[in-house]
Amino acid sequence: MRYASLRARGLPVGSGATEGTCKSVVGIRTKRSGQRWREEGLANVLTLRAIHQSDRFPSFWKHLCRRYVARVESVAA
Fold it and tell me: Can you say whether residue 7 is alpha, beta or left, with left for phi > 0 and alpha for psi between -120 and 50 degrees?
């Protein structure tokens, strides 16, 4: 990162604010009454949310569809 130029423009360069916000937002949304999460499931949901929010979902979906293809065969006579 270009810390000097970011600081010169008055932008934050530390991750503390980002980490604190993530902790509180994720905590609030995932610890509601009756919710139970496993670490793996929560990590997957948060990854999908990040992909969606960064407008990368269409390209992600194209990639996912190429990797996971089911063989479907007719069993009707």
Answer: alpha
**Given a cut of 90, is residue 72 above it in pLDDT?**
no
| Prediction pTM value | 0.55
The widest CA-to-CA distance across the chain, in whole angstroms, is 73
What residues contact residue 3 under an 8 Å CB cut-off, 6+ apart? Answer: 13
Q: Which amino acid is at 66?
A: R
Condensed to tens digits (0 to 9), the pLDDT of residues 28-53 reads 888 888 888 898 999 999 899 999 99
How far is CA 65 from each of CA 6, 22, 25, 69, 77, rounded to the nearest angstrom? Answer: 39, 29, 30, 7, 30
For the chain, give every domain's residue range.
3-67
List, as one string, the DSSP characters of 60-75.
HHHHHHHH--------
